[in-house]
């Protein structure tokens, strides 16, 4: 019985040490290396900002796809609740350069999703060109959404709830893409 008690105490001691290591501050270097190296110890862990961009862009693809299906006549009525979704979607401003605005959204969000997913790959994480593209397309998405939101406010005089959600997604993506600036500076220096 005393051997079993000693083995249990040994396991508790090992667990206690592991818990201490997991709770140790990064400055101790105890557990920090494992968290940064990722599985297999190959390079740094993927940037959380790129993971966030990927999730937000995927939501944007679904949202824009829903609006595109409406625009193409595959969805009868938009589930908008209060607001002027149909007014906005049927206005002359719902087409940009001959292409329905939701199609631009699907393409833009899909591009951002692809770039963010590529940026999570260990061999591409430090590519300066990828950082530049994420930042550039994040800024373009934000600018285009700001333009469309201004049209809703000052020209169309109607608000589409789904368009506002898309604008919020674009703003969040742009905010997360700003994390690419230090990567551009560090790699450029």
Low-confidence stretches: 5-42
* Order of adjacent strands in the largest pleated sheet: 1-2
What's the helix-strand series?
HHHHEEHHHH
- Whole-angstrom Rg: 24 Å
Categorize the overall geometry.
elongated
Structure description:
This protein is mostly helical and 189 residues long. It contains 8 helices and 2 strands, in the order ααααββαααα. A two-stranded antiparallel sheet has the order 1-2. Strand 1 and strand 2 form a beta hairpin. Helix 3 (48-71) packs antiparallel against helix 5. It is elongated. The relative contact order is 0.13. Mean pLDDT is 81; it is low at 5-42.
Per-chain topology:
Blueprint lengths: L1 H22 L8 H6 L10 H24 L13 H5 L5 E2 L2 E2 H18 L9 H29 L4 H17 L2 H9 L1
Antiparallel strand pairs: 1-2
List the defining traits of the structure above.
elongated, 189 residues, 8 helices, mainly alpha, single chain
Task: Write a compact overview of the structure shown.
By secondary structure, the chain is mainly α. It has helices at 2-23, 32-37, 48-71, 85-89, 101-118, 128-156, 161-177, 180-188, and strands at 95-96, 99-100.
